[in-house]
Amino acid sequence: MKTKNESTVWMTASMFARHRAVSRQHIARLVKTGVLPMRGNLINAVEADRLLDDRADAREPAAGDQASRYAEARTIRTVFQAKLARLEFETRQGKLIEADSARARIQEHLAAIRIGLEGLTERLSGPIASERDARKVRGLMTAEITKELHRLSAILSGRGDIGVPPEG
Question: Which of the 8 DSSP states describes residue 33?
Fold first, then answer.
């Protein structure tokens, strides 16, 4: 449908869709987003062609593009499922542990270290106070610290009990 001005051609959405070789739905989306120059229900075809030729995003996706997008999405999903299966497998093997249980275990070990170190002063104050020889004091401290380190090592390796205070 032409007007007096030959540079302007007005078409319905269906006519313009056939003219551009795209679906009517695609043209409806472009109309709805305000991309196409309209007057009432008619599209200015000359101006719309010029605008759409300049816009890569205004082209309707080809069927092959949609198929490749589907294949890409399916690949992403498959990769995700494989990674998830690997995590589950490594968790079952004991290579991975729950972060919360690891934090709780670390807290238990730190508490055992704190209890052991706080007990050193109690266990050493009497024997050190009665000694005047520096070598004997050093020997007492070394023996007690070594005993505490062995106790902590046993706790960390799972052979000791965190709740049992060192012997005095």
Answer: T
- Where do the structural domains in the chain lie, given as residue ranges? 10-58, 62-96, 99-156
To 5 degrees, how large is the angle CA 108–CA 109–CA 112? 90
- pLDDT digits over 127-142, tens only? 888 888 999 999 999 9
pTM of the model: 0.38
- DSSP conformation letters of 75-127: HHHHHHHHHHHHHHHHHHHTSS--HHHHHHHHHHHHHHHHHHHHHHHHHHHHH
CA distance linking residue 51 with residue 20, whole number of Å: 12
Cα separation, 122 vs 15, in Å, equals 96
Mean pLDDT of the chain: 83
Reduce the DSSP state of residue 43 to 3 states and report it: strand
Tell me which residue of 144, 158, 155, 167 sits closest to 112, measured CA to CA. 155
CA distance 30 to 49: 12
Lookup result for tokens 């309209």? 38
Question: Which residues are paired to 39 by β-bridges?
Answer: 42
Q: Write out pLDDT tens, residues 12-70.
A: 999 999 998 888 888 888 888 888 888 888 999 998 888 888 775 555 555 666 777 78
